[in-house]
Amino acid sequence: MASIPGVQFNITGASGSQGLLSPRNSWRCYVLPRGGYASQDSTGTLITFDSSSVAARFAANNWIQAGLSTANIRLVAAVGGNSLSVSGAALTVAENTRIFVIGNTEPTITGGSATYLTPATLIYQRDDDTADLFTNSMITSNADGLVQFFGGPNFFDCLIQDGNQSNQGSLIDVPAGAVEGISTSSATTLGATVTINAALGVTGWATFGQTATFNAAIGVTGWATFGSTVTMHAALGVTGAAVFSSTVLAGATVTVNGALGVTGWATFGASVTLSGALGVTGTAAFNSTGSFGATLSVTTGNVVATVGDFDGRRLLMNNGTALTTAGFSITAGWGSTAVFTLPDTSYDTRGTFNVLAGGAGITNEPSVFLTFTNGTFPVTPFGFIIKRETTGIAPTTGYWAVSTQTATSIRFVYIGLPVLASNYQANYLVVG
Fold first, then answer.
1. Do the Cβ atoms of 130 and 70 come closer than 8 Å?
2. Quick check: 66 and 93 in contact, CB under 8 A?
3. Which of 31, 149, 345, 392 has minimal CB crowding within 10 Å?
4. Owning domain of residue 16
5. Sequence-distant (≥ 6) Cβ neighbours of residue 126 within 8 angstroms
6. pTM of this prediction?
7. Are 62 and 84 in contact (CB under 8 A)?
């Protein structure tokens, strides 16, 4: 963690015949883990809290104390739901009494004075996690009544004792650092320049102004709206909609140097450069220029160019399940012993097939049927024969053609009468 946040406060009190306020020197402050308030009166072994999340701050075998009285120290027997049970004598607790977590070592009690041993709380004497720890998490105030300590972002409870080690008061839910980080269940609006060096989690809306730089993952559940320039050095995950604006500022840019994952809609403005993978579950719309340094993967939906065209160096139609001969069927006109093969890896969209005519029953214009393995096309596709092998094949006037096509299958027909023991090969292309 290295540099860590700190807490400081002063202890003062009235003294002398005139009751003047003065610093409390050599008083003790025990820094305890965060406890909880009792939500109702009780007499017995059960203490109830507002919620199970409060009860979860305690664990079996913790020593606890109800309020400031050392007579109210008990051992936790069990924690369940929104309550805990204690061992030993019955304990009378009033509503709104603070229940302190002392630790797993029983305090030493002498005539109402207590010495607490709280190794569960790690607090440091300097602002670095390699600094010396305060023994038993106990700090002695200086001549000015000052108490100061450092610790990781957290809430603490502080028990204050006088010089005779009698409990005099407490500080509740003392925060060290930004305990809950930047997290909201409604709306987060950030201004002109934002730099995030750690993970940002937002439940609701996240709105970023002119320039946003992320050096760690950003996770938004809801809407994320970005302004003119956004630079990502880590993964961006948005559940909902990610909108990158360019309608107001022409030439606005989005640069992503890590993975960009969007569940929902992704709308990009004038110029988009992705150095990592883009995964969109839903619809990705690019308004002008899109440059992708890695694979553009759309899980469901479509990649839509709302303005202009998609420019590409090549169109590769080899994504999907490769076909087997089971995806094809041939008619009897190829002969009773005809053999169908796939010389190359083939797909619904393009491929190569070969028929070796053989046996009895060869007839004019036999056919090959392809049933689409990767499901139904959204519209009836167009099929084309790109090339047929003609060397040494009779009749020399024969050729392949597309006969019928539906959203689920296509029929290729050989126009001519095949010759026994001859191969008839064709390359096909199917465009939806």
1. no
2. yes
3. 392
4. 6-176
5. 132, 150
6. 0.50
7. no
